[in-house]
DNA sequence: CGCCATCCATACAGTTCTGTATGGAGACGA
DNA sequence: TCGTCTCCATACAGAACTGTATGGATGGCG
């Protein structure tokens, strides 16, 4: 039946709740109210809260790594790949990203998920710099700083919805030490 | 008597607990156990949990801004001020900083405290760059990126205890666009 | 000494959440 | 049609935390 829930439905709602209200809201009772069912459904699909949290984190790892690729593949203009990536990630404030990182501050499972995503993204940026002609050693350090800057930006509350200022992107590209 | 507690004692323990176990551990009952008293003491010093949280955050604002100044005043060597600051803040992993920022992700009061500290620190770095000869407009943007990078570093779990690698500091100074 | 203020213990009621046990309703195949 | 499997409701016990009410202990001070 269509009005029956799957484990995936619970996980999807978990990501929405995570982005909206943070990891402290990932509890069976409130979630069941939002889903319009009782906790009987929750405990049928998941052994306990920890199993549910693990499922939510596993799903986040997927979407967090999907986005970085999808965003680049749909690449529109004649910008360099680095500039395109920077313009993209410094545009919107990723509520989900903030929520998971807040979670990771004091939860081992969330920390592992974040670290795995960080490693993947970092090597992606480093490869981008190397492809742009930056020596490998410098590329590694600069990619690390650029990624840290993204994280700091994401977690700051200053991030406005629209386009990032051109001066910021220009400065980041200059710091990266690539032409264009 | 010396074995009596003050509100300050509760706040100090709050900062320690915050750094160790995160904001979810800032609860009257567990804290009282650690302090070796009952919740009767807690509710005598504070009207409720919200008032206690506000007191902890107010104290954090003080120490978070004290450190940046104290660290620079005790300046040892012949390095430039910027390099000295970078070496300092990229050295240790600030557990308290991480905890408060994790808290701020979904709590309005914590967010206000973080924003106030960010504004103060950011202007400090910008002034440093301007004093080093960077034009005001560029200094503002570069200070923002450097501070974001620090935040990203602090929240990453990669931070090792010892000295930061010289290559990292060199890259940061280069990105800042100052000589030295 | 007696009084009062400070600080804390204890007990109580109430809320929220967890996890389990049990059973019921609906779809679906043999 | 009769199980059977899937999904969910309900009820229960228990843990953890909040806030209040009340009284006890201690020390300072008149």
Poorly predicted runs of 5 or more residues of chain A: none
Percent strand of chain A: under 5%
Q: Considering residues with a beta carbon less than 8 A from a beta carbon on another chain, report the largest interface and each chain's count.
A: A-B, 37 and 38 residues
In DSSP terms, counting alpha (H) and pi (I) runs of 4 or more, how many helices of chain A? Answer: 9
Major sheet description of chain A: none
Distance N to C terminus of chain A: 55 Å
Radius of gyration of chain A: 19 Å
The run of helices and strands of chain A is HHHHHHHHH
Percentage of residues in helical conformation of chain A: over 70%
Broad structural category of chain A? mainly alpha
Mean pLDDT of chain A: 93
The count of strands of chain A amounts to: 0
Oligomer: homodimer
Global shape of chain A: elongated
Give structural notes.
Two copies of one chain form a homodimer. Helix content of chain A is 72%, strand content 0%. The first copy, chain A, is mostly helical and 180 residues long. Chain A is elongated, with a radius of gyration of 19 Å. At the A-B interface, helix 6, helix 7, helix 8 and helix 9 of A face helix 6, helix 7, helix 8 and helix 9 of B. Chain A binds a DNA duplex (30 and 30 nucleotides) through helix 2 and helix 3.
């Amino acid at each position: 039946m269509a009005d029956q829930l799957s484990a995936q439905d619970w996980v999807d709602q978990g990501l929405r709740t995570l982005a909206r209200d943070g990891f402290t809201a990932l509890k069976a009772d409130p979630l069941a109210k939002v889903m319009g069912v009782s906790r009987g459904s929750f405990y049928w699909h998941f052994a306990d809260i920890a199993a549910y949290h693990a499922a939510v984190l596993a799903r986040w790892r997927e979407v967090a790594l999907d986005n970085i690729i999808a965003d680049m593949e749909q690449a529109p203009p004649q910008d360099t790949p680095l500039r395109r990536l920077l313009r993209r990630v410094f545009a919107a404030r990723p509520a989900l990203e903030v929520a998971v990182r807040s979670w990771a501050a004091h939860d081992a499972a969330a920390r592992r998920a974040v670290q795995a995503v960080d490693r993947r993204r970092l090597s992606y940026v480093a490869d981008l710099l190397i492809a742009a002609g930056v020596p490998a050693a410098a590329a590694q350090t600069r990619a690390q700083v650029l990624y840290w800057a993204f994280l700091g930006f994401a977690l700051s509350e200053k991030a406005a919805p629209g386009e990032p200022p051109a001066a910021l992107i220009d400065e980041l590209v200059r710091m990266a030490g690539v032409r264009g």
